[in-house]
Design goal:
homodimer, five-stranded parallel sheet, five-stranded mixed sheet, 22% strand, alpha/beta, Methyltransferase, Cobalt-precorrin-4 Transmethylase, Domain 2, 2 domains
């Protein structure tokens, strides 16, 4: 009997926004694995605080690099690929011994994120994925306004895209979600401006986490340092009886 | 003391994919309101089966029309607007008497859906919205493949859009989600074909519900009658170490 890997989405941050299923799997886990940056506790592990059963074994998987090597450097992919292969070997050692492993994922496991790099390397049929509330759902809920109405087109954009690509998509869609903000905030702001959407843009930090803030993007200082957990939302204005 | 309205997302269908918070609010509710088509039980109410406490009062809100009047007819908006105003009056009568009301919402309340038409008519600060796992998350999870990688652009499209608009967005984005399928399936198929995306499209019915099916859209018969709970997914192919 081989064990299974459960990739469970923990949702946007508030432990109450975890699904009942993720909560059940987590509180019944014997092995819990999670990614983290070396030397940090890790956001996924932090979300699981108080829910991992006593006696469960924790398996941190520490990224060998995060931003030290640029994405465009071929070594980045090589180093990360070797890392994911190694993580999968560790998980496989557990499942081959008959144990189930719960892998903690921030947000929804199949929506961006890192878990999918393990998923595609694990044997087909050996993994169950539990979807979750996304960070973007928490962000638009935090703005207190529905994000899409009627036939609105919604596009999700990464702030790492080049400005021309961002502008083109920002013009084309009705509702917008921009993630991976960080140092890309000035570029995102400029693209929104070029697309005529800056005045309608909201900026949310730490949605559904302690320290949540919501403001018009136009009120955010030019030199503001955006944390990892920041999202820009432009609401659609579609049909509304 | 006036009561509050809680718009709780119930998620995609599987009761275990409800959030812990929605579950807590639902199982502690004294008043539960939900939309339904006249003469039907209603999907939202069905999802709450076995979770509404004994003695709680149920408040069905029955749509005066669904597809009997075309969306383009001005009477459609008039009739629905009067209906939502009436629903809000019913909720306000409860909250003014000091009672909290839980309003059941399919999927995520602020992502398409009907709850937002109540939300915008209720006094500011009197409503709390609980985000949820979306139907699209359940659909891409059901395909067994991550929907977005790296810097993929994801667009969410309604099948009710005209074919040229659908085609344009299907060409522009990396990952696609198409909802509101029903009688629009032939048009959606044709737009995907024109955009060169048909071969990569998956068709999911009843994601995270009993009777879930997943197949390549190209394998779905031309004359297939798509139910309300059907979603088309095209996965992004972005950066993957």
């Amino acid at each position: 009997m081989t064990g299974r890997v459960y990739g469970i989405g923990l949702g946007p941050g508030d432990p109450e926004l975890m699904t009942v299923k993720a909560h059940r799997l987590l509180t019944g886990a014997r092995h819990v694995a999670f990614f983290r940056k070396a030397g940090r506790k890790g956001q996924a592990r932090t979300l699981a605080d108080g829910l991992i059963p006593e006696g469960a074994t924790e398996h941190p998987m520490e990224y060998p690099v995060t931003t030290e090597i640029p994405l465009t450097d071929p070594r980045y992919n090589e180093v990360l690929s070797a890392f994911y292969t190694d993580c999968v070997a560790r998980l496989a050692a557990l499942t081959e011994a008959g144990d189930d492993v719960v892998v903690l994922c921030e947000g929804d496991p199949f929506f961006y994120g890192s878990f999918m790099h393990l998923y595609t390397r694990l044997p087909e049929g050996s993994v169950e994925v539990v979807p979750a509330v996304t960070g973007m759902s928490a962000a638009w809920t935090a703005t207190g306004q529905p994000v899409t109405w009627g036939d609105d087109v919604m596009s999700v954009l990464m702030g790492t895209l080049d400005e021309a690509t961002l502008t083109r998509h920002m013009k084309a869609a009705d509702a917008l979600v921009v993630m991976k903000i960080g140092r890309n905030l000035p570029k995102i702001r400029s693209a929104l401006d070029a697309a005529g959407r800056l005045a309608a843009a909201w900026y949310v930090e730490y949605a559904a986490m302690p320290g949540q803030t919501v403001q018009k993007l136009s009120d955010v200082p030019e030199d503001h340092k955006a944390p990892y957990f920041s999202i820009v939302i432009v609401h659609g204005q579609g049909r509304r009886p």
